[in-house]
Predict the structure.
Amino acid sequence: MLAGVLQVRDDHLQVMLWQRAREPDVHRWSLPGGRLAATEDVETSIRRQLAEKVDVHKLSHVEQLSVFSAPHRVPDRRVVATAFLGLVPSDVDPEVPADTRWHPVEALPPTAFDHEQIVLAARDRLRAKLSYTNIGFALAPAEFTVSELRGIYSAALGYQVAPTNLQRVLTRRGALEPTGRTLPAGPAGGRPPALFRFTSRDLQVTDPFAVFRPPS
């Protein structure tokens, strides 16, 4: 099993990769993963492996992505991989080993086997679900300003999202609500920014026919 763990970091959608220390594909970058134990279901297994190997304890969402079964995806042996999409909120900073780093999805280093294909499939699944579900909750902190949420959506979607439109769409779908609290006003004064939260932190389909589109 392999995990495409995504997070918005430094205004970019990034993926966690570790550098292989042995052949095949030595020194190339790989997705974390491992084998399913006899007493585990697949989600329990992938959460355990990430917690043990790369200290990712706070996955806010996990779902099966796809099965990758090309006959020669791994040299010299037949290996079928079940890949998962995992999401980490932007305010969490997991400790990772020296051989593990976050990489922007749009600027991947040389990857092992078919792992670039898996990363891009994870990115595309996330982008699709941002259009018709409330999955933004899994990338955002528990509370945030509209400006902060706009930055998260823009990084994940790969284009700039208008903050007023984002707030209007998510509120109309019942996915977003004000907390009633604000942040302190900035040095220049003005209205203190309001804090919002997602109404649910479980995945829900909010509009099965919706799609976010890049500005024309």
About this structure: DSSP finds four helices and eight strands in the chain. The first strand starts at residue 2 and ends at 9.
